[in-house]
Design brief:
Blueprint lengths: L27 E2 L3 H9 L4 E6 L11 H12 L3 E6 L3 H4 L14 H29 L10 E5 L1 H4 L4 H7 L6 H5 L2 H7 L7 H21 L1 E7 L3 H15 L4 E5 L12 E2 L2 E2 L9 H9 L3 H11 L4 H13 L5 H31 L9 H7 L4
Parallel strand pairs: 2-3, 2-5, 3-4, 5-6
Antiparallel strand pairs: 1-6, 7-8
Bound molecules: tyrosine.
Length: about 375
């Protein structure tokens, strides 16, 4: 990405659609909603959301943030997915009650590559899906970008960090973050590294603003403190008003974190959760959760979703809403081929067939490496 490739986040006078996130219930905004809507409707904006490579794969819970980035791009804005190759070393204390075990540089590097690949696939699948509904639309991938924060942190000296970032950071503000307060209330306390994590994530916002005029950060609700750290640094270092949008933690009607099956995460990498398993997980979601999940995890228009839900309510035993949900998510995460394989395996296994009837690709879709 460089000058002139459409990625400078150029302001234009053209009025854009309303906020991109009206379909997602439970969002939070750092500024007045009107201010964010004004910001979005007065130019093409650049969003970002970060993912630390703490595991080899992203999980279903991350899909909501990815959807957020895709909605922004579909709406004509730009979106950056940031992989936290550097922040993964530091360790985000948000939402955790104990210190993270450090991961080796090799493990973080491999995880980052694997997550990068999976995001590229999802971006491409989303682009293909968008083309199917509107062949004329500009390539979605041109509005999506992947970066790794190693790019700036590997070249930044400790002194640089203290001068550029540390000098702007107030102890009082840092100590006031929930992620810090809750840990300091425990006898083990926290390491200096995890304490300073907020500044690393905060500085990412500044770097992305300098590079791409990024002004909006998306993240789960546990990221609030880190996102505010970014907004503050952006104001002090760039004299720019940043915005943060928090996405709710997805829970089921039963109050359980969505995206876990019997305590285990549902992964987006097919070698960790096979397309067949992902399909089955979604196909088995509760009727009570379907409407919400269709809104949050598919790009289907709201009136289309309402029709599906109305038909489903009339004949829930057909599991039509679950089928559409599973199909849409499978296509996004594993493409049409992944969906076909998952459907084929479902057909064979659920009609009393055996694994012997499956070809190599199908076996892969069940999670068996032939
Ligand atoms: N802290 C985020 C990941 C992240 C990393 C770097 C960022 O700049 C932004 C977000 C998380 O754990 O989910």
């Amino acid at each position: 990405m460089g000058q002139g490739d459409g990625w400078e986040g150029v302001e234009n006078e053209e009025s854009r659609a309303e906020a991109a996130f009206q379909g997602v219930p439970g969002c939070g905004w750092s500024t007045e909603r009107e201010e964010l809507v004004r910001h979005l409707s007065s130019g093409e904006r650049v969003f970002y959301c970060g993912f630390d490579p703490t595991a080899r794969s992203l999980h279903l819970g991350n899909l909501l943030s990815i959807m957020g980035l895709l909605h922004a791009a579909l709406d004509g804005h730009y979106a950056v997915a940031l992989i936290g190759g550097a922040t993964g070393h530091v360790g985000d204390p948000s939402g955790r009650n104990s210190e993270r075990d450090p991961l080796s540089s090799d493990a973080l590097f491999e995880n980052a590559i694997s997550i990068d690949l999976s995001l590229q696939t999802i971006f491409q699948n989303a682009s293909d899906m968008a083309k199917e509904t509107d062949a004329e639309r500009p390539e979605l991938c041109d509005h999506l970008k992947l970066v790794n924060n190693v790019a700036w942190y590997e070249r930044m000296s400790v002194l640089d960090f203290m001068v550029k970032v540390g000098k702007h950071a107030r102890m009082h503000t840092m100590l006031g973050k929930d992620s810090v307060k809750s840990r300091l209330a425990q006898p083990e306390g926290m390491s200096y590294a995890e304490f300073s994590y907020q500044l690393f994530q905060g500085w990412d916002f500044v770097e992305l603003n300098q590079r791409y005029l990024c002004t909006i950060q998306l993240g789960g609700s546990d990221q609030w403190g880190n996102m505010l750290a970014g907004i503050e640094l952006l104001r002090k270092c760039q004299d720019v008003q940043g915005h943060a949008i928090t996405l709710p933690l997805m829970t089921t009607a039963a109050g359980v974190k969505f995206g876990k099956s019997m305590g285990n995460a549902i992964w987006l990498n097919e070698d960790m959760t096979s397309p067949y398993q992902l399909y089955q997980f979604l196909f088995n979601t509760d009727d009570a959760d379907c409407a919400k999940l269709l809104r949050a995890l598919t790009f289907l228009p709201l009136d289309h979703i309402n029709n599906i839900v109305a038909d489903h309510t009339a004949a829930p035993e057909k599991r039509e809403a679950q089928r559409v949900l599973a199909e849409q998510v499978l296509r996004l995460v594993h493409g049409n081929e992944g969906l076909e394989r998952a459907q084929n395996v479902t057909k064979v296994l659920h009609s009393g067939g055996s694994l012997a009837q499956l070809d190599e690709g199908d076996l892969l879709a069940v999670g068996i490496v032939p």
